[in-house]
Amino acid sequence: MAAGRVVRFDSVRGYGFIAPEHGDEDVFLHVNDLLIPESMVRTGLEVEFEVEEGERGPKASSIRLAPGATPRAGSASGSVGDDSLCDVLQTVEFTTEITELLLQAAPTLTGQQIVQIRREFLQFAKKHGWTED
User: For bias kind Low complexity, which ranges apply (predicted)?
Assistant: First the structure.
């Protein structure tokens, strides 16, 4: 039995990935291997699973909540509050993408304004688990 956290799950396509807690390579997760309701699967959810060798690498099976995990029933894909399609970015990557977006959307912003907006976006992203250091 292995344990880890869901790093990404696309409910439309029915698959995602789990990062094992011991730092091994990410494990493929398919909706057909869930022993919990699909609506509970979200980025950051702690799970336990068996590891099998799939066609393209490690594959999770018998996926269930880890002891002490806090399930949160989700809503339909794409609705407000559904973060299952959100990739977790490194802080540097997130900051770079926000900077490029701001420069493209509002080229008249000053450097100081961009830094201030980025800082607020980064705090918001960290609070929601969208970034990691």
Answer: 73-82
